[in-house]
Amino acid sequence: MKKNIKIVSIIAIIIFTCYLSFYHYTDSYEFGITFNVFTGELKSDQRAGHHLTLPWVLATKIDTRPQRVCITSATRNMDCRLVQFDTTQWKELIKFEGFRYYWWYNRFSFNSDQETYRGIRNLLLGHSYGKSRGSFVKIIQEVGDEN
Question: Which letter, b or e, does each residue of 106-134 get, where b requires 16 or more Cβ atoms within 10 Å of its Cβ?
């Protein structure tokens, strides 16, 4: 009996390790980018669904839904924009920011207020109001203060 439990445990660990090493899932509203660590090759992963890659190929995903980004201010001036990641310009994002897990970026920032400084939303905020706007940020609409 103990031998069977040991074998099942080893098989479960192998399957879980393979899952972590080879598998990634891209939802229908996400845009995937893969990076081969050995060759340095970057590819877009535009198909939604389950994907298997080699263990040395890293995959990240970016939410492509329109997002409201705001500059926190007490003024009655326009301080928000509805922006969206432009998937056709993904190489420019890599040029500006490098390859990383954008959805995970700065995940452990503990902020006491509602404004958080992490993830793709914050990245889009910085580039939509920045000095030089990247073409990977599509401004859909200027949104006024709702207060």
Answer: eeeeeeeeeeeebbbbbbbbbbbbeeeeb
Number of neighbours of residue 5 by Cβ within 10 angstroms: 9
Q: What is the DSSP string of the chain?
A: -HHHHHHHHHHHHHHHHHHHHHEEEE-TTEEEEEEETTT--EEEE---EEEE--TTEEEEEEE-S-EEEE---SSSS--EEEEEE-GGGHHHHHHHH-SS-TTTTTTT---SSS----HHHHHHHHHHHSSS--TTEEEEEEE----
- The band of 113, judged by pLDDT with boundaries at 50, 70 and 90, is low
- Tell me how far apart the alpha carbons of residues 68 and 82 are, in angstroms, rounded to a whole number: 4
Give the pTM: 0.71
Per-residue model confidence as pLDDT tens digits over 32-54: 888 888 998 999 887 888 888 88
User: Which among 37, 61, 41, 40 is positioned nearest to 49, based on CA atoms?
Assistant: 61
Tell me the backbone φ, ψ of residue 90, rounded to 5 degrees. -65, -30
